[in-house]
Amino acid sequence: MQKTAGIHHITAMVNDAQRNIDFYAGVLGLRLVKKTINFDRPEVYHLYFGNESGTPGTVITFFPWTNQLKGRIGTGQVGVTRYRIPTGSLDFWKKRLKKFGVTYSSSVSFGETYFQFEDPDGLLIELVERDGGPVNHWNFNGVGAEYAIKGFDGAVLFSAQPHKTTNMLENVMGLECIGQDNELLRFKSEGDLGNTIDIKLTPSVRGLMGAGTVHHIAWRAKDDEDHLKWRELVQGKGYDPTEVRDRNYFKALYFREEGGILFEIATDPPGFAVDESSDKLGTQLMLPSWLEPKREELEKKLPPVEVREVSKSEF
C-alpha cells in the first residue's frame, strides 16, 4: 500500500506580514526559509518558516493579506497545529511565552502534556516535548538548538465527517490508527516529524476561511514519480485532484476530502535551495521565472518586511 511519510507543510491565512515574521521568527525562533509570492495571487506574499533548511515536516507557510476578514476555526479545517520541542525544553518555552505576553494553557491527552496558545491572528498552536526527529540547528533571538522547535509533531483535524476522514487517512494516505483518548482518534505515519495526526470526533462549529485559520495541509510524496502515483490513487478512490502544479520548491496537487479539509500532496524535492544558497535562504524576494519581468511592479505592491530580533516591548 502506498503510504505518506507524514506532513510536508501546513499553510495558513494571516493579516500582517511583518507581525507574522516577528512572531514565527522572532518569538518561536523558526527560520524564514523563503520569501516569495502567492503564485495564484502575486500581489500577496507567501512566507515559509521552518528549521535551518526548511526540511519537509518542519515548514509552516502563510498568505498574509491585510484586507482579508477574520476567519473562524471549525470543521473542514486543521484545527490545531502541533510543534515538537526537545525533551526538557518546556520550562524554557513557558518562560519565553510569558516574556512575550503570550497566554497559554495546558492539557493532557494520550498521556502527554500539550501547551496551547494562539498566534497574533488566532491560529491555534500546541507544543509537546518528544524525542525523535533531527535537531534544529537554527539559532535566532535567544532560541538555541537545545530549545529550538524541531518541526511539526502533527495536527488535529476538525472534520465535518470524522468517519470519512478516518477512512481517508487509513485507506488512502496509509496512516495507522493507534488509539483513542476521549474525543481524539490518533493516527501515525512512518516519518520522523509531522507523523501524529488526531481527528476530533465531537461536533464543532463550521469553519470559515479567513485570517487565523489553516488553508490546507500538505502530505509528503518522495519524488515526482511517487507524486504521479498519488494522483492516480486519489483519483481512483473517487476524489477529484487538480493537475500537478509546479511550486518551484515542490510539485503540488490538491483535493478536498469528504470531511471538508483541503489536502495537498507535495514532493520532497527539490527544496528551498533551488533558487538561493542555503546560507541566504529567506533574505530576498524570490519570484518564479514567469513573474520575474514584473518584479519592480510587484515590489511596489508588497509591503516592506524584515526578519528582526524582537522583544516584549516591540511585539
TrEMBL record:
<dbReference type="InterPro" id="IPR037523">
    <property type="entry name" value="VOC_core"/>
</dbReference>
<feature type="domain" description="VOC">
    <location>
        <begin position="151"/>
        <end position="268"/>
    </location>
</feature>
<feature type="domain" description="VOC">
    <location>
        <begin position="6"/>
        <end position="130"/>
    </location>
</feature>
<dbReference type="Pfam" id="PF00903">
    <property type="entry name" value="Glyoxalase"/>
</dbReference>
<dbReference type="InterPro" id="IPR052537">
    <property type="entry name" value="Extradiol_RC_dioxygenase"/>
</dbReference>
<protein>
    <submittedName>
        <fullName>Glyoxalase family protein</fullName>
    </submittedName>
</protein>
<dbReference type="InterPro" id="IPR029068">
    <property type="entry name" value="Glyas_Bleomycin-R_OHBP_Dase"/>
</dbReference>
<dbReference type="InterPro" id="IPR004360">
    <property type="entry name" value="Glyas_Fos-R_dOase_dom"/>
</dbReference>
